[in-house]
Specification:
- Probable methyltransferase required to silence rDNA.
- Its main location: nucleus.
- Belongs to the methyltransferase superfamily. RRP8 family.
- It is a single chain.
- By secondary structure, this protein is mainly alpha-helical.
- Among the domains are: about 55 residues, Arc Repressor Mutant, subunit A, CATH 1.10.10; about 100 residues, Vaccinia Virus protein VP39 (Rossmann fold, 3-Layer(aba) Sandwich).
- About 60% of the residues lie in helices and about 5% in strands.
- It has eight helices and three strands, in the order αααααβαββαα.
- β1, α6 and β2 form a beta-alpha-beta unit.
- α2 packs across α4 and α7 crosses α8.
- It starts with a helix and ends in a 6-residue tail after the last helix.
- About 10% of the residues are buried.
Length: about 230
């Protein structure tokens, strides 16, 4: 009986121990497996790479830039046609009605110029750099005043800012007068006359006579007073 009770005691004592040992590891293993699976599932769906998002962003901005460029080009052509078919005073009044038009015109102008194989102002810059830096320059229709920013010469920059067709320069005070794609308007001869007024009475002997003759002919044609 004693042996039997010991056997039963061992049996009673061992059964719970075996159940604990068999259940606890399995529960622990299952928990670890779930944790591992969760980790794998999380890492198997990585977030969208920054390179792809930046690529889509750049393509979107590129498209918007193209749209803006087309709009700027369209506005430029419309305003440009207006400037060629009206007087200087009418052009000034046109810009006074909407000040933004002036900036819009020059933005479109720069966009159009960027597609040209050579910009005319660069030829003028090259011409001036090959001559004395002491030459005084009057830039009529200067736009963004690129000429004054690059050459060493003293440059007076003028654009459409006043009702007065005269520029604030004394007669015979400059050596070079520049009209770079700015000689427009139905009364452009007045601008030439003003350039003639401020230019010093000396020029390159190779083309001086031809220039003065052309200016005089224009003055006669437009019935303008001559110096």
């Amino acid at each position: 009986m004693k042996g039997q009770s010991r056997k039963k005691g061992r049996t009673k004592h061992n059964k719970p121990q075996r159940i604990e040992e068999s259940l606890q590891p399995k529960h622990s293993i299952k928990h670890k497996k779930k944790t591992h699976q969760n980790h794998v599932n999380h890492s198997s769906n990585p977030p969208e790479s920054s390179s792809s998002s930046s690529s889509s962003s750049s393509s979107s901005s590129s498209f918007l830039d193209k749209v803006r460029a087309r709009l700027a080009g369209g506005h430029f052509r419309m305003i440009n046609e207006k400037l060629y078919t009206c007087t200087g005073k009418e052009a000034l009044d046109y810009f006074k009605e909407d000040a933004e038009l002036f900036n819009m015109y020059h933005t479109g102008y720069q966009e159009q110029m960027s597609h040209w194989p050579e910009q005319p102002v660069n030829r003028i810059i090259k011409w001036l750099k090959g001559r004395r830096s002491s030459l005084i320059v009057a830039d009529f229709g200067c736009g963004d005043a690129r000429l004054a920013k690059i050459v060493k010469n003293k440059v007076f920059s003028f654009d459409l800012v006043s009702n007065n067709p005269s520029v604030p320069l004394d007669s015979s005070s400059v050596d070079v007068a520049v009209f770079c794609l700015s000689l427009m308007g139905t009364n452009y001869a007045i601008y030439l006359q003003e350039a003639y007024r401020v230019l010093k009475p000396r020029f390159d002997p190779n083309n001086a006579e031809r220039i003065w003759t052309s200016l005089r002919e224009l003055s006669v044609r437009w019935d303008l007073p001559q110096n």
